[in-house]
Amino acid sequence: MQDSHAATTESAAASPAAYAPTDRTVPTRSPERASYDRALVHSILDEGYLCHLGFVRDGAPIVLPTLYGRIGESLYVHGSTGSRPLRTAGRTEDAPGIEVCLTVTHVDGLVLARSAFHHSMNYRSVVVLGTARAVIDEQERRTALDALVDQVVAGRSADSRPANAKELAATAVLRLDLDEVSAKVRTGGPNDEPEDAQLPYWTGVVPLTRGHGAPIPADDLDPAVPLPGYLANL
């Protein structure tokens, strides 16, 4: 099998600058906020590590929060081999997979309008629709798991023990290709009604930022082990 990372990187390099809109990726509300720009989609995905994975189980819609990693034009999620949705996806290359909707959202600000109706948020989000398929090839699975770790803390996969054979056997990995994709972004201030302009209420945006606290060493960490540079730089 061709190296998965190289293959997806080459695919991304040869891809057009935007994803093709579909009936399912064109929003009915505020369509002017939608974007299919590939670079924007990648930037939103690369800034995060938590997604919400939606699918149907036993006729009921289910949404699970989980970690993800991106390699080129594919997203990877993982879980226990005993997980029902991961079992549903199948464990062979020719399995049908499972239809999913994966979303990633960053909230950048609280938008406070003069009227309760026009309160909103500034955000950046990505929605990916498609068939998630089980990853069977061992090298692709290891590469995907490294990507998941590095998505959370860049550089961490090279500074930790990789999964052994037992751990790898207990871990299911799914791949969702970035084919049916859209981004949606809101920026700017409140959209107050003109007749509300003189109302005596504060209006504006409260910016939100994500930060990292100082790393706290484990109780049993050898004091001789230094803080890695990739953590000191967070």
Written overview of the protein:
This protein has a single domain (4-213, 222-232), classed as Roll (Pnp Oxidase, Chain A). 21% of the residues lie in helices and 32% in strands. The protein is built from six helices and ten strands. It has helices at 4-14, 38-47, 84-88, 138-152, 165-169, 229-232, and strands at 34-35, 50-57, 60-67, 69-71, 74-80, 98-112, 120-134, 171-177, 180-186, 204-207. Strands 1, 2, 3, 4, 5, 6, 7, 8, 9 and 10 form a ten-stranded antiparallel β-sheet that branches. The longest helix has 15 residues, at 138-152. The radius of gyration is 21 Å and the shape is globular. 24% of the residues are buried.
Largest sheet: 10 strands, antiparallel
The number of helices is 6
| CATH architecture type | Roll
**Secondary-structure content class:** alpha+beta
Write down the secondary-structure element order: HEHEEEEHEEHHEEEH
What gross morphology would you assign?
A: globular
Overall tally of structural domains? 1
**Which residues sit in consecutive blocks of at least 5 with pLDDT less than 50?**
1-13
What is the class in the CATH system?
A: Mainly Beta
The end-to-end span amounts to: 36 Å
What tags apply to this protein structure?
alpha+beta, 234 residues, ten-stranded antiparallel sheet, disordered N terminus, 21% helix, globular, 6 helices, Pnp Oxidase, Chain A, 10 strands
How are the SSEs placed, and which strands pair?
Layout: H1 4-14, E1 34-35, H2 38-47, E2 50-57, E3 60-67, E4 69-71, E5 74-80, H3 84-88, E6 98-112, E7 120-134, H4 138-152, H5 165-169, E8 171-177, E9 180-186, E10 204-207, H6 229-232
Antiparallel strand pairs: 1-9, 2-3, 2-6, 4-5, 5-8, 6-7, 6-10, 7-8, 7-9
